[in-house]
Design brief:
The chain is mainly alpha-helical. It has 2 domains: 54 residues, Orthogonal Bundle (Arc Repressor Mutant, subunit A), CATH 1.10.10; 130 residues, Orthogonal Bundle (Tetracycline Repressor, domain 2). The chain has 11 helices and no strands. Helix 5 runs antiparallel to helix 7, helix 5 packs parallel to helix 8 and helix 8 runs antiparallel to helix 11. The relative contact order is 0.11. The mean pLDDT is 88.
């Protein structure tokens, strides 16, 4: 195989996650999939947390680029949110890889810098701009975690319709209507609706 370097480790980790999911990822299993001794990985990432942090930073590569091209603060924050969702959806379990990390690496720092700056430009007072930017990030991550979990359920379980028939819709009519709305509303529209409501309540034009 080609010489192992950090980029190859990350590429191998993503390939493993695509096939098995992030929960199955361990340093030993990754080493086996790469055809190397697991100790070799420690030359490139010091432990599993360092690997996760590196994957999170890799996900955000380019997300914050060129977001200051004349767009207003709210539009910049909106663009960043859509870019973040696209980045997280680019890999299986992408949102779960990012969630729970506090990565101090260039791509994640660039995203935070851009999001806070966009919140400030939107008229959010300085002490609240961080909370506004992170609220948007939390919304995106939470939405995509649910979105990707749904994909996994479809892969693993073809009985969604049968499971829904076990619900007593006469007792829970709002749930019946809600399920229909969710089925009839594309994911992109669901995401845009929640994001727009969040930004409307957060940003001043």
């Amino acid at each position: 195989m080609a010489r192992l370097d950090r980029a190859a480790v990350l590429a191998g980790a993503w390939q493993f996650i695509e096939g098995h999911g992030v929960d199955a990822l361990t340093m030993r299993k990754l080493a086996s999939s790469l055809g190397v001794n697991h100790g070799t990985l420690y030359w490139h990432v010091e432990n599993k947390q360092a690997l996760t942090d590196a994957l999170a930073d890799d996900l955000l590569a380019g997300v914050a680029d060129d977001t200051d091209s004349g767009a207003s603060g709210p539009d910049r924050l909106l663009e960043l949110a859509h870019r973040l969702r696209s980045a997280l959806l680019s890999h299986r379990d992408g949102a779960r890889v990012l969630a729970g990390t506090f990565v101090r690496q260039p791509n994640t720092l660039a995203f935070g810098e851009a999001a806070i700056g966009a919140a400030l430009e939107s008229g959010v007072p300085e002490p609240e701009a961080v909370l506004a930017a992170f609220s948007v990030q939390y919304y995106v991550m939470g939405f995509v975690i649910e979105e990707q979990a749904g994909y996994d359920l479809v892969r693993a379980d073809s009985t969604r319709v049968q499971r829904e028939t076990t619900i007593d819709f006469e007792r829970f009519p709002n749930i019946a209507a809600g399920l229909k709305t969710l089925r009839d509303t594309p994911r992109d529209n669901q995401f845009a609706y929640g994001l727009t409501r969040l930004l409307t309540g957060t940003c001043r034009s």
